[in-house]
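Revision sheet: structure tokens.
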Amino acid sequence: MSVLDLARPEIRSMQPYSSARTEAGGGQIMLNANESPWAPNGDEGLGCNRYPDPQPEALLQTLAALYGVRRNQLCVGRGSDEMIDLLIRAFCRAGEDAIVIQPPTFGMYSVCARIQNAAVIEVPLAEDFSLDVDALLAAVTPAVKLVFLCTPNNPSGRSIPRAEIERVAQALAGRALLVVDEAYVEFSDQRSVVDLIDRYEHLAVLRTLSKAWALAGARIGSLLANAEVIELIRRIMPPYPLPLPCVAAALVELSPTGQASANEKIGIVRAQRLLMSKALAQVPGVREVLPSAANFLAVRFDDAASVYRQLQQAGIVVRDIRRYPNLHDALRITLGTPAENARVLSVLKSPAVDGRGVADGSA
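Predicted:
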């Protein structure tokens, strides 16, 4: 059985849109795409009067080398969000098929599924946010086409052991596409499972330049998968997903100098994660700092609502995650610069209000 047998048959058989840039085949005078022949003001040589390459070759080669995949096992788009959406649209028939997720987890899996009118089967993580593999596999019905695993998990920060991911992959062969979201893997001690793609044709991995590579504003995400899956997804992608300035910014960040700088900052984040985890655990009103392999910490408070307001009044914005299952008392705090992290601790240790939202009586 081919992994494409899991996809929607109408997507497999459709004729994809052929863009003017794809059909250009080189040339010096470009008159085939109804573009302006003049570059805009402030263009600085980017050539923004022309449509970009649908899949910029220099970026693809750089990312393929970075992630350790072949060129035909990679496609890039507007963040991981677009890749999630495209996968669900390619594999799930509206009103018939389903995905499986493990809450609490990244919200876009269910949002994209519901937009497509695909069912969302939830298999909650255990109380310690570990994956219940047996429960997950028991929930996979014939209607399930995609199973999403987020590791390190957002918003808890916990990683899924590689052996458990491979166990799920083995069990899903011929049944569903396994999508492993590794948005935060650069901050983890656990290596990527991308090397398993050649072993499991139904495994796909999501990566992003938004976190460790400091390019959230450029919106560049990658899908790493079997070449047939990549070709299928490219059939339904918009013809020009990545703006030229975003590609240029990514190539600078992914240069040898940029990679050295990014790795240095990843090291700072990891060191700050340890420091902040220990320091936050000593703050009055903090119930627990959850273990994290990402660039954030989920923290339980006696009164999370008051702490949220306290930080906000000090000009510090954190994420209120109390709506997530098993996190009704928690806030998610992204690790900032050392100075920003020190400011968070200073505010939380302020004598005016402790972590329980209780004034100590001082002026």
